[in-house]
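Need residues for this backbone.
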């Protein structure tokens, strides 16, 4: 029996969540400094987008090579939603229950790296101090509330990519008389 496109999207969401969870756990166990690296963020971004697009492609194939814009976007969105939620849950468990100290250490490292980047861009010291103050005022970056907000913002950003991907990949059935 052929799988529904929503079932395919759920499966890809679980794959995405698994990949993101494994990467988070590996980076946590290997070296927290890796979380501050731009290349890691870009790699995760690429993985998320690629698996979202793969979900659309597989869904399109299961629908006989045709997919509406709505179904394409739904497939992408379900995949991204499930993947990000699984990843967020892993982060919540690690940084709030297993090792809350790591969250504090990581936040300090992120602020330090961001300060260095600002200095490299010749940002005025007053602007750097203001930016650091804002980062510190946000509180614990890895609190449950802040992780939930992050997931919402990521969903919004990835949805823009999903709209573009859905528009590109949609294919209507030809009208038959």
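Answer:
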């Amino acid at each position: 029996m052929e799988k529904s496109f929503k079932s395919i999207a759920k499966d890809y969401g679980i794959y995405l969540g698994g990949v993101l969870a494994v990467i988070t756990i590996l980076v946590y166990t290997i070296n927290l400094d890796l979380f501050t690296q731009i290349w890691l963020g870009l790699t995760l971004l690429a993985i998320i987008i690629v698996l979202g697009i793969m979900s659309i492609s597989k869904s399109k194939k299961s629908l006989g090579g045709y997919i509406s814009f709505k179904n394409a976007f739904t497939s992408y969105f379900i995949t991204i939603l499930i993947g990000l939620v699984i990843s967020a849950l892993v982060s919540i468990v690690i940084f709030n229950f297993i090792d809350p100290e790591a969250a504090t250490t990581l936040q300090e490292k992120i602020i330090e790296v961001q300060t260095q980047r600002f200095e490299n861009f010749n940002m005025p010291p007053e602007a750097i101090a203001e930016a650091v103050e804002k980062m510190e005022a946000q509180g614990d970056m890895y609190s449950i509330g802040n992780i939930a907000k992050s997931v919402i913002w990521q969903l919004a950003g990835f949805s823009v990519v999903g709209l573009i991907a859905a528009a590109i990949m949609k294919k209507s059935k030809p009208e038959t008389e």
